[in-house]
Amino acid sequence: MQRVLDILLSGLALILLSPLILPIAIALRMTGEGEVFYAQRRIGRGGEPFSLLKFATMLKNSPNIGTGNITVKGDPRVLPFGGFLRKTKINELPQLINILRGDMSIIGPRPMTEDNFRAYTPETRSAIAKVRPGLSGIGSVIFRNEEEMLHASADARYVHTHVIGPYKGALEQWYVTRQGLSLYVALIVLTAWAVVRPQSRLVWRMYPSLPKPSPELSVLFEAAAG
User: Fold this and answer.
1) Are 209 and 173 in contact (CB under 8 A)?
2) pTM value?
């Protein structure tokens, strides 16, 4: 049923959003480095790699500059128009094509680079590989302000790998063990709510069984919210 909804919803979204997608594509072509799409190798269902599509929002050589695959608030590698696309998550819209192709689902663990995937424990990797990665998911809702959290930390790489990473893994395992149509629909609604109210604690009230963040991570949540 979820796959049927993925196809119907992503196809409908592409049709309805075409008046928005086409002007953005033209604007990107005429600004920045002239690239419209950015394809990056990510790990999908079964641990198999696929090409994730995004609107191009950063310099082409970004992975080899500064903080690499970690993006912080005010990152100088982000193109002028790219900042708006990233803030609103419009840069993720091309992944609707990935959903139609079957690479992804609307809801699931966010697709990761191979390095980030391998950084998880074998147990977490095994859980995540059971499902299609998602355009959004429980991790995306809770870490709506991840760039602000990393910006507020003294060592973004350490925080991303050793503080945020393990907790994201716990969240994705939580999702995999509870996945179903009701959670699928609820996370779509919560994703839309998080865009409007990024500081909202609604997800915690709806799902008190969510893993508890570490004290260090709780401080980062508060710093990003403040």
Assistant:
1) no
2) 0.84
Mean pLDDT (10-residue bins), the chain, 226 residues: 95 93 86 81 95 85 60 70 80 94 96 89 94 95 82 77 90 96 96 86 94 88 72
Question: What's the Cα-to-Cα distance from 182 to each of 61, 80, 139, 186, 193, rounded to whole Å?
Answer: 41, 39, 17, 6, 17
> In this structure, are residues 210 and 130 in contact, taking their beta carbons and an 8 Å threshold?
no
- Buried-exposed string 87-112: b where 16+ CB fall within 10 A, e elsewhere: eeebbbbbbbebbeeebbbbbbbbbb
**137 CB contacts (<8 Å, ≥6 apart)?**
107, 108, 109, 110, 172, 175, 187
For the chain, what's the residue count? 226
Query: What residues form DSSP beta bridges with 83?
Result: none
Cα distances (Å, whole numbers) of residue 52 to 39, 62, 203? 5, 16, 27
